[in-house]
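Aggregate trends can hide what the representation actually does to any particular protein. This step matters because it turns folding into a mapping between discrete strings. For completeness, the protein is quoted in full, as a sequence line and a line of structure tokens:
=====
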Amino acid sequence: MSHMSMNLLHALALGLTTLDLPNDRDFEFLNTCIVFLTGTKNACGQGACGSCTVMVSYYNHDTNNIVHFCANACITPLCYLHGMAVTTVEGVGSTKNGLHFIQKNLIDSHGLQCGFCTPGMVMSMYTLHKTNPNPSQEELERALEGYKIKQNLLKSSIIICGTHVKELNVIKITDEHIEVGAAVTIGVLEKVLREKKSTIQEAGQRTLNAVLSAIRWVGADQIRNVATVGGHVMSPAKNHDLQTLFLAIGAKLTFHSKDAKSIIYTYDNDFIKNNKSTEGSGDILVSITLPLTREREHLFFFKQPHRRGFDYAVINAGMFARIKEDGNETEEVRVCYGNIDRRPRMVQGQSNIILNQNWSDDMLTVLSSVLEREFGDSDTERLQYKLTLAASFYFKFFISLRQQLKISNNVPGVTDEALLGHSKASQYYNVPTKDGNSIVWQPTHHVSGIPLTTGEAIFVDDLPSYSNELFLCHVGSDRAHAKVISVDPSPALKIPGVVDYVGHKDVPGRYDFGVVTKDVRLFANGEEAIQNSSLYPFERKLERGDVDRALKEAEFTLDGTVNCGGQDHFYLEPQTCVVVPKKEHKEIDVISSSQTLHELQAEISEFLGIPRNRIVTKVKRLGGAFGGKQSDSILCTGITAVAAWKHNQPVRSTYERSHDMRITGKRHGMMAKYKVGFSKEGRIAGLSVEFYLNAGYTTDVSPFVADIFNVAMSVPYNIPHFRSIGKLCKTNLPSCNAMRGFGGPQASLVREHIITDIANTLNMDPEKVREINMYREGDTIIQGKVLEDFNLTLCIDKCKKQANYGKTLEDIKGFNKVNPWKKRGIAMSNVMFHLGYPYINFNQAGALVQIYLDGSVLITHGGIEMGQGVHTKVCQVAATVLDVPLDLVHISEISIDKVPNTTESGGSIVADLNAGAVKVLVFYDIFQNACLILNERLAPVKAKHSKTGWKTIIEEAYKSRISLSATGFYWPPKRTIGYDFEKNTGDFCEYFTYGAACTQVEIDCLTGEHQILRTDIVMDLGQSLNPAVDVGQIEGGFMMGCGMMTSEEIILNDKGHVDPIGPINYKVPGIRNIPREFHVTLLKEVKGGGSVYSAKGVGEPPLLLGVSVHLALNDAISAARAGQGIVDHYRLPCPATPDKIRLACGDQFSKKVKGA
């Protein structure tokens, strides 16, 4: 790797302390300059997630001041930084030198969970503070937009870095034009235009407005601060916003040739068609000249992203019109579209259908034929949607132009900007009066808050390298459906630095594994053929009553289908591990980003053929998991362990984001068919559901997911005759695996759409149908469990009141009557989620508690910290039981040699089990509970030295030869038997977590974009161990559910591969996608509770409430279709991406534009 090709993140990883290294020093030399700046994370390598954000500073000699800006280290070329200073999170604050107030406020506000991207957020806010000490809320939200998608940085005919070439960094504004140097960054251009806007004549401001509108949604600040205008314009990409706008403006591009001559090109179709924008000519782009609009000239820019904030355009458009001096006829029109064809294009044929007439279907017919003639042979994806958008943008242009010419009034919802506004939120929970030793129930800080905000927190790949360490890269097949005949690694082995190829023949032991079904192979080999059967030999049924008879006798029956796509876990820390053979007694240490250390130890034991007591699996923390670091971590770490075993050397492996997304499992996609019978009052008499889950190429955990789907379908509605049958589809996709919610979200979507369909048929409010069919206190559910402390109705009632449901419903109806192109919807959903594994053996945990002579307490338990706050809660419990300050309690790492046979961290019950092992209710003295055991041992010493402090008590106990170390073991005391899914017998779960949500949305019928206006959530968490942590889990879980329901789409490319390779084309919700109002309430003083200190688990249940977003969008679409005279029971696909929303609206644009 040359210094020129090296990016800033490479330098930070190597600990570069200077950028002025002589050219004859090679890359290996740089490794001797190690300072290990671990705070700047590499989560995607695409400039997309914000985890690698740093602050760059330089002295501006023209303005005589220091300029600061934030940038993504992973895509910032090292050569760009000549003469600049780079500040990483380590330079902001530290445990040694103290925290910056931003870091402290982030901790105080409970603004972190797994913490992997927290250093990047700190740097964004720190940079904002350095440039603007008193930012507005809009500026604060904008600073945090950079946490998901990438724009190309610098891909152009400029083959030198122009950062410090003065002639390339000039911005000149005259009465006629704006001249922009090619090396001017997009961020600098935006700043200058905003500052100079008031000095420009009114007509010329139309150009500035259009340019600023385009710049606003180009990437995020980290991108705009580094990406140059010239690089953006000359990029060969097809969807760059400024290219399309500059095409409409009629920009002039000035080049300097090799012989120092100036060449000026008009940026038009010919320039683009003749490939002037490709590299290799030797010409250097010097500047871009943008003519200012004059009187009678009008310019507009439009863009529709996949989701608002830090995203590429689905399509964009620049439209220019010059009006004749003697009337309203057009003299010249330039209509340009980007991302429909391979390059932006000006469409000449549309100039003849504008003005001098009102908008009509005839005009739309002409427009549609022009668009289809121009782009009908395009091979782009989603062509019908793109052409519909193109027609919609033209409609917006038409209306906007007529308004500027004052020849028509405003048409509501056509020319409005995307509805954003400032986000508002509230959290309501009960904090009991502190009685001196009750550290539980308090909203204490995250126990690792300080190192997470300072970048000092260590994740797996932050561990220093061993001197003889090897790095393993995983090689995937380039065929989605094939038989492996042979593997020839010889070309790879010829590459300098490549040591070996590791394959299935190198596995000493067994190489098939799986959490539920052991049918996953560590390596593919030539002896296996892919079966052609489309279904696995699996079927699971949950049934009560006589369903067929109930359906036959029902007053009304409905049948329908509900589909749901998959979802990627999108943890920020990729799959990663370090495996270290010890060379003695066949021992091996495994540090892995796994949420199942026991299973990992067991499988590696089988792979290598050695006893488990020689294998130590451990981890300090994970940068997110959501179920995705269960079986997939075994694949990553197992292969690495085989390589380490073969070479008897430490081996490290970290997936690149693209590899991670393509090879790892996803949430199960689903199709469900249902038939329901009900009365005229809405009471369900019988329900039959048959669903199919996409299991992938193996079953792995899919049978268990099907079981949980059945369970989630059966509650919370009391359906006397019920049948749900699950089947597993075999496909050539990565094996779908565990994911937060585990079949529950898919079932909730099906269940709540059935309720809505019944309500629509009977012209009832869906909430009335829910109320009629809801279980009641004392009812017996299908699994045989009697409902006690059934608090779901309390959650629903409080949520309705908090959201002002009745009035809001009427307000939305009124809004929809007067807004033809914007529609609103509202919906509620609920969750009744079981806590406690149905399999009884999973419900156990151990802990080790040790007290040192200085009074400090060290805990090791079996729960893995991955952002859910389990370490914080366990420390709270220990401090409360031992009656010591929280800061005396510490958890270092989770290791299988300290606590053996751990249960995987999942199922929302990690804190229940592991806090229970540290402490449980006192009257259950049959358990070995570490802190209670220690308290019992210390009781005589405490009695004798009651007036002394904790440290003295410990010292006296030591002198009395009292053991200050204890192991704890716990299982939920209320259950003695597990549950059999096949027979529907046994004790199903420990308890239920309840919740309700009400969501209001608004859609733009012309573009398909939506905004969540408000969400209210009320949940019953018993007596939360840490309400601040749990509210964060509710908000985060809900937004993950929103992503599943709206933006996160798994698409396969033409080779059968999973197409999304990272945040560049996988749309996780960002800050602009959260509800504009977000209110979360925990029920206070409710009956019942969970296990430890009456707290309930929270990780998964709120995700299911994301269904309310999908239902609300469906409600808004129904209003849009009704406005077009379409009255039906339309089913919005899931995820409800903008194209699905737009094409569902049923207006004249989507009808006329058919696409290819």
